[in-house]
């Protein structure tokens, strides 16, 4: 049986597993507090002949919230938020994959959010990266995602759903001034940022501090991902 890898003294609960979808070439399951995300990777597959020849592979991603995953029931058809998240994940993962190794091919990534309690985008980036590593597709590094919510003078790393909405408790009527949401994708071994998304208004000093906090969050997540992939590889080698 696979173990759950937790990061003490930073997250209430962080779980990372591989092999969550048996039919996929690579897959991963991530739990961040009460946010639960599953990802499956398929390919590389040859693209249709009618398409133009591309010397490099292309990465396609589809993120979908399960209909029961949010406080309000989601639709079966992909909405604008899901399409936006899918595009951001592609942007974050393209520098990770050795695209030159798979000409005229496409790598498909399917992400399903089973439960949304905040920090979905950061968790989805991490889950997709772990699934790519599990698939055996050649990559330069893993991408670690981390979200931050700035509420007034308070910075919250990997916020919950209510914190993302600008509330610090469960009282819907509370009115709290909100500032910004920030998500970063870090390639820790290469020490490079593959994606940076900011929504809101921040001054220069606050922006620098928040980016630094997000990067530190990514660095703290990385040992959990590394251990998960190491254990997964050891299991595969022991079966062969």
Describe the structure concisely for a colleague:
This protein is 29% helix and 30% strand. The relative contact order is 0.17.
Summarize the helices and strands and which ones pair or pack:
Elements: E1 14-18, E2 26-32, E3 35-46, E4 58-65, H1 80-93, E5 105-115, H2 120-135, E6 144-151, E7 154-157, H3 161-164, E8 180-187, E9 192-200, H4 204-239
Parallel strand pairs: 4-5
Antiparallel strand pairs: 1-2, 2-3, 3-5, 6-7, 6-8, 8-9
Q: Class by helix and strand content?
A: alpha+beta
Q: How much helicity do the residues have? A: 25-40%
The largest beta-sheet arranges its strands as 1-2-3-5-4
**Gross CATH architecture:** 2-Layer Sandwich
CATH topology: Ribosomal Protein S5, domain 2
Distance between the ends: 17 Å
Strand-and-helix sequence, N→C? Answer: EEEEHEHEEHEEH
Instruction: Return the domain count.
Output: 1
Number of helices: 4
CATH homolog superfamily: GHMP Kinase, N-terminal domain
Q: Report on the biggest sheet.
A: 5 strands, mixed
Please, what is the average pLDDT? Answer: 86
Total strand segments: 9
Q: Note the beta-strand portion.
A: 25-35%
Outline type? globular
Poorly predicted tracts of residues: 1-12, 170-176
Could you tell me the radius of gyration in angstroms?
18 Å
């Amino acid at each position: 049986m696979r173990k759950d890898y937790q990061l003490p003294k930073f997250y209430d609960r962080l779980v990372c597993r591989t092999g969550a979808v048996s039919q996929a070439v690579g897959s991963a399951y991530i739990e961040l507090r009460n946010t639960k995300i599953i990802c499956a990777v398929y390919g590389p597959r040859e693209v249709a002949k009618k398409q133009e020849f591309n010397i490099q592979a292309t990465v396609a991603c589809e993120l979908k919230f399960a209909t029961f995953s949010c406080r309000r029931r989601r639709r079966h058809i992909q909405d604008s938020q899901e399409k936006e998240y899918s595009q951001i994940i592609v942007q974050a993962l393209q520098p990770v994959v050795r695209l030159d190794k798979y000409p005229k091919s496409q790598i498909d990534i399917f992400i399903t959010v089973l439960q949304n309690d905040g920090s979905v985008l950061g968790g989805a980036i991490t889950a997709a990266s772990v699934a790519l590593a599990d698939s055996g597709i050649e990559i330069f590094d893993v991408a670690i995602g981390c979200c931050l919510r700035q509420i007034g003078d308070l910075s919250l790393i990997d916020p919950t759903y209510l914190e993302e909405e600008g509330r610090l408790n469960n009282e819907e009527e509370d009115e709290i001034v909100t500032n910004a949401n920030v998500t970063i994708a870090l390639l820790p071994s290469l020490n490079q940022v593959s994606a940076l998304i900011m929504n809101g208004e921040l001054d220069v000093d606050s922006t620098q501090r928040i980016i630094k906090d997000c990067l530190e969050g990514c660095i703290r997540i990385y040992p959990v991902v590394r251990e998960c992939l190491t254990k997964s590889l050891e299991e595969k080698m022991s079966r062969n």
